[in-house]
Amino acid sequence: MHATMAVLLLAMLPGCWDLKEIVNRNYIASIGFDFVDNEYKVYVQLLDFSSIAKQASGKPVAPAQTWIGMAEGKTVIHALNNLYRSSQQQTDWDHVNSILLTERAMEQGIDQLLDGLFRFRSVRYTCWVFSTKMDIPELLGVNSFFNQSAIRTLLHSPHDLYAQRSYIRPIRYVDLVKSAKEPGQTARIPSLHMSEDTWLMNDKPDPKMSIDGLYAVRIGEKPVWFSEKQAAGVRWFEQKFDESPMILMKGTTTIGTVKLVRHTSRIQVDVENEEPVFHFLMRIRANLVELKEQLSEEELSKLTESLITKEIEATMTRAVERNTDLFQLEHQLFRQNNKLWKRLTDNGTKPLAISREQLRPHVQVQMQFEGRFWHLIQKQDNKG
Q1: How many Å apart are CA 325 and CA 246, to the nearest integer?
Q2: Which helix (H) or strand (E) holds 173?
Q3: Which of 118, 27, 44 is CA-nearest to residue 79?
Q4: Is the dihedral of CA 324, 326, 330, 334 positive or negative?
């Protein structure tokens, strides 16, 4: 009798009545924002997650499928909601991994875009954020090598490439939000471009994404674009720095290559003639990769220090010309000398005016040698 009643009670339990299969949802992997003809355009990238799971057991034999959706509206929320008209089934925002912004969209105000995304609480703050001058569908439609899914592209996994080539650091959504809240902050959003002349597949161009520069974005101001070469000096101000190559030049002659692998840096704010002076203090380790002529360890260190200093100064000069606080110096002043910051910015209502002479880099390089290079350096030092 007791056993019969237990079975009947179990049968009456509701169970997971609202459970839905994975295949019955649309999973957004990336969102793109543009602004055309006085309307916001929203693009989304849908990936076949079932094909991603199958890749663990072997390489796919056919190209991974990617769907791109587009909707428009007078506001960001209006455009996002218009996507549902033809989505066929419920849309899930929990797996958004990247956000892509055009220059036109950012010119409408980065705070407008952030406010729209805030309404979708499923979008996580760990998303990567990129900018672009290109049409968004071109970038969202790119797949990775070996028929792998777009989830293996630079748009979704930028940190892997940054670990090998630390030029322009990827930025997460939380960093962009922080720049909108912190006084004196200027966000640096990497700019994506389509590279069509690097890779071939079956003797045909195989376009792939690359980072060609960055946008300096500050709340209430228009974004300013810098090419990778123009913004090269910014990399020395990044706290998270893995490794970055540098060509050693004497005049117009290339004499070698070093790989800069570790660094510690900080900005110290002093006051001279009632104006802030920013001392950039950096220590860095460099591995010698190739050398075409014999130089002493001291000569190599001094040459590398000089090249890094010139790179910082060139970037600073370009930033000053475009009235852009590319190095976030105002925020450093806000933290280290708040009283002076309030006076010079009228309590944060106007940007800090910065001149090229106010930035003073102090670079110290420690060279590291292995194998044959170490013997060449020792030999040169003994001659000296």
Answers
A1: 25
A2: helix 173-181
A3: 44
A4: positive
**Model pLDDT for residues 281-340, shown as the tens digit of each residue:** 999 999 888 888 888 888 889 999 999 999 999 999 999 999 999 999 999 999 999 999
Longest Cα pair distance anywhere in the chain, in angstroms? 101
- Separation between Cα atoms, residue 291 and residue 63, nearest integer Å: 43
Contact between 40 and 74 under an 8 Å Cβ cutoff? The reply is yes
Alpha-carbon dihedral 218, 222, 227, 228, rounded to 10 degrees: 10
Q: Global pTM?
A: 0.86
Residue 278 has which token pair? 């920013």
Query: Which residue type sits at 49?
Result: F
Alpha-carbon distances of 86 from 76, 121, 139, rounded to whole Å = 18, 22, 22
Pairing of strands 204-205, 208-217: unpaired
Q: Identify the DSSP state of 143.
A: -
> CB within 8 A of 363, min separation 6: which ones?
236, 282, 284, 305, 308, 309, 312
* Residue pLDDT, tens place only, 268-296: 999 998 999 999 999 999 988 888 888 88
Write the CB contacts of 190 (distance below 8 Å, at least 6 apart in sequence): 130, 131, 158, 168, 169, 170, 171, 211, 213, 214
